[in-house]
Amino acid sequence: MKDRKKNITLALAGNPNAGKTTIFNALTGARQHVGNYPGVTVERKEGDAEYQGRSIHVIDLPGTYSLSAYSPDELVARRALLDEDLDVVVQVVDAGNLERNLYLSVQLMAMKIPLILAFNMMDEVKKRGIKIDVGHLETLLGLPIVPTVGYREEGVDRLLDKVMEIADEGAPPSADVRFGAELDRSVESIQREIEKGGKQGKYDPRWLAIKLLEGDGEMVDFMGDAGEVAVLEKAHAEQERVRMLIGDDPEILLADARYGFVHGAVSEAVSLTVEGRRTLTDKVDTVLANRVLGLPIFLFFMWLTFEATFTLGAPLMDLIDSAFSALGGTVAAALPGGMLSSLLVDGAIAGVGGVMVFLPNIVILFLMVSIMEDSGYMARAAFIVDRVMHLVGLHGKSFIPMFLGFGCNVPAIMGARILENERDRITTVLVCPFISCSARLPVYVLLAGAFFPPARAGNVVFSLYILGVVVAMVMAKLLRTYVVKGPPTPFVMELPPYRVPTLKSVALHMWERAWMYTKKAGTIILAMSLVVWFLSNFPRQTRYSPEIEKALAEAGGLESAPEEVKLAAQREKMENSYAGTIGRGIAAVLEPAGLGDWKVGVSLFAGFAAKEIVVSTMSTLYSLGESGGEKGDLRAVLRADPFFSPLRAYAMMVFVLLYAPCMATVAVTYRELGSWKWAALMLVSTTTAAYLASAAVWWGGKLLGLS
Amino acid sequence: METTMPLSEMPVGGAAEIKKIGAIGEIKKRLIEMGVVPGARLEVERVAPLGDPIEIYIMGYHLSVRRSEADGIEVKPLEK
């Protein structure tokens, strides 16, 4: 017996939907944490388990069908398998779908890593009348196999026993898969060349030879960097030889041969005693993916998600909102008025509070999303709407985050995680802000209510929602054509069997999301809130204009001054702050779009904190001399303002719809896409679109003789 | 000569054997890795409500592919 290692590192590999997450949760419970792999937005889940007094560190690799470095997920999984110091690799296999799952096993075997197969969902297999001769398969593959039922945690202890055994004593030699005479000859001759050079590093030479024959970019670079020109030349010559001889790419032929090997093993060890073809999944899909009913049912589920997220969330949002207001009130009362109090209350607490109110939405949203995802419905939803999304270069699944955008762009952008392909995810995130979120509605209500007759105000608002969707589609097409270029992601997607989601998995998923949101968005938001606070409060104004100073003196200070004096003072403070200067700058720039007014400029600038703030800022700025800042009055004030007209109001609504999203959205974009580059592109693309669209409205309207 | 046709032209409910994968590049490799290999049997399960993509049953699981991808898969229809 070799030395017993105290700490064991284990990686879980497997196909998507094979039950990897269930096994991971069964092994680690709540002792897990989620991060990202460096440089990519692929999630890295890790956790710890204790077994027989030894600790096992478990890494949950992304679910993949193969390890050919086709997607970022595959690349990350492969790098982890090759580069990390792993004692054991467990591949979770869906025993009900052996052939496709074992294709991955064959690739893992070739890497010569200590491998155990966990045949998961053995209960379903029995129910379907499939008999697997596990012992025989172990012999055929040369791999230890442990049957498990993940959601009941059956077989997990046996799996851990096996893990200990392999970690202590090493893995038995697994079978070398043969690819047929010609391919084997090519592999062997490349392998000899590699061994002659001796630069294979930590890689198994036969595996490396197979990869070079496939023309694997990463391994070709590796050999190139090692200066092994002879090996690369050999690989190239062998590729040509195979192409000439068999007429197809070695890459394809090797994949084909792996399936041949798997098929052989499976037909020897598996027998079907009952024809179990019409499963529950088939029956469910005759309804849910029905040619006629599929679309209405899908829309119903979307509506339900939307309703739950924003209706169930509302009371909790109010609760959090009042908690933060109370906190702000307490802090304001405890501190002497002044800079510090204002910084804490108006800057930090208001800013962070403004973002934390979305937490209930996020939690409920991810509850709904993880139920849809774990049950298998998500894949059907993508199947149903792919046609439409494909038209603009998006993926079927892009629909879900975009739809959520009608409620709030923040959860929408987080929802874009369901897209596996980076290009699809980037495009979807960047167009989400064009979908009119609920925070923009107060602005429409104010302006449409003030400048359009009640009978037409509804249509005016509706036209903005439609415009948002159209611009999102056009922008998606533009982005896919000019920025995130590349062929459309193929829609070669598994429609997994329906399953009842487990409470544990759903709960863990929600917790993960809630925590990530609180931690990351919270820290960025805090910083941005402080910046906005600084801009609105500096340079410090010690003296107001003579009239206000007089009114203040009469009232005995700002605190006891009448409401209109306070508002006037506030207005003046804003006009003279950096934010006011920015507002005037914005007004100058927006002149051609019909929005050249400094008060509009400041409101739009303040709206970057949150779009509903456009309304509260306008009420501060316009309500001078009127009693209070109520919306009803504000409408009258706006109508009386010579600057505004229905056409200008519409141009402004179009601008508010399309321009830079709120800072929470920008922060979450940075967090989700991992780069300020994309956040900056979002700011530029949205604001440019807003400028062009509102200018088109303004000048188009003037040409048509509107005002 | 055997009669083959593109998978995209198979009727719903029809069974077929894959003869040749003509699709090029990345997609071809992905298809093969997902078990869409010559010799494999498949059934066309359904068409999405909007006419694209289609769903097939192959190697014991359900797979969806767009019509443009199915165009490149040559199949020989089988009696069920």
Itemize the secondary structure elements and their pairings:
The complex is a heterodimer of chains A (707) and B (80).
Chain A: E1 7-14, H1 20-28, E2 32-36, E3 43-51, E4 54-60, H2 72-83, E5 88-94, H3 98-110, E6 115-120, H4 122-127, E7 130-132, H5 134-141, E8 145-147, H6 156-169, H7 181-197, H8 205-214, H9 217-225, H10 229-246, H11 250-269, E9 270-272, H12 280-288, H13 294-334, H14 339-356, H15 359-375, H16 377-391, H17 399-404, H18 409-415, H19 422-431, H20 441-451, H21 454-483, E10 493-495, H22 503-537, H23 546-555, H24 563-576, H25 578-590, H26 598-606, H27 613-622, H28 631-640, H29 646-658, H30 663-673, H31 676-703
Parallel strand pairs in A: 1-4, 1-5, 5-6, 6-8
Antiparallel strand pairs in A: 2-3, 3-4, 7-9
Helix pairs in contact in A: 3-11, 5-11, 7-8, 7-10, 8-10, 13-14, 13-15, 14-22, 15-22, 18-30, 19-21, 20-21, 20-28, 20-29, 21-29, 22-30, 24-25, 25-26, 26-27, 27-28, 29-31, 30-31
Chain B: E1 5-6, E2 15-21, H1 25-33, E3 41-47, E4 54-58, E5 61-65, H2 67-70, E6 73-78
Antiparallel strand pairs in B: 1-6, 2-3, 2-6, 3-4, 4-5
